[in-house]
Amino acid sequence: MIHAAIFDMDGLLVDSEPHWRAMEREVFATVGLFLTDDECKQTTGMPIPEVIRYWYARAPWVDVPERSHQDLADAITEGVHVRIAQLAEPMPGALEALAFFADQGIPTAIASASPMSLIEVVVDRLGIRDLLTLWHSATLEARNKPAPDVYLGTARQLSVLPANCLAFEDSGSGLRSAYDAGMQTVAVPAAFEYNDPKFAIADIILPSLEALTVDTIATLPTSKLHS
Asked: How many degrees, rounded to 5, is the angle at CA 124 between CA 118 and CA 130?
């Protein structure tokens, strides 16, 4: 049976991905890298330091001390904090999905690649403190997603075996993180990559959290679950 439900945050619970892409485009433009929104979608789900390295490897800019890779990452993250605090809204079905498990007494948690400060902003913006048991950031672990560390750390804090956790993810790297942690997985890909084969490792694929039902969960395989 399911002993805990663990949710990714960006793009799954909150419509933060457009805000990340907007800040990436704005900040990268300061070093002469002008990305389209579609190009920014290529790094969906990656931690920001990885995004910086990804684009630097493909279109290296002239490094200057005042625009170090860390400074770029900080500028993107700080801008996203502001935008999300003012503009972000829950993804369709997100609040209902959290309440679905909370109402059954099943612990719910966030396991995000974003820093703890941004998780706090989202939790307050969406008003979901009472629906969550805890929230955890991969930046507090040795490795960020797609490594399984944040999911293993969240399960540990919940005192639940990973095999008894149901993880929800919208990105390929996040799904790999939960899958490698040994959890049951539900993928909720964005429309632009819904049919991408990287999501085939998920136990269930949904078009949105609005599609989550009791019957959906009943279709989960039992091989990983222990009573």
From this structure: 120
DSSP state of 62: P
Q: Any bridge partners for residue 90, and if so which?
A: 14
Q: Are residues 122 and 52 in the same domain?
A: no
DSSP state of 91: P
Catalytic positions are: 8, 10
Side-chain-side CA neighbours of residue 135 (13 Å): 24
Among 54, 87, 120, identify where a domain stops. 87
Helix (H, G, I), strand (E, B) or coil at 14: strand
CA atoms within 13 A on the CB side of 215: 1
Task: Examine the domain organization and report whether 33 and 58 are in the same domain.
Answer: yes
Q: Which of 152, 172, 71, 79 is nearest to 118 (CA)?
A: 79
pLDDT digits (tens, 9 = 90+) for 31-63: 999 999 999 999 988 889 999 999 999 999 988
| pLDDT tens profile 164-221 | 999 999 999 999 999 999 999 999 999 999 999 999 999 999 999 999 999 988 888 7
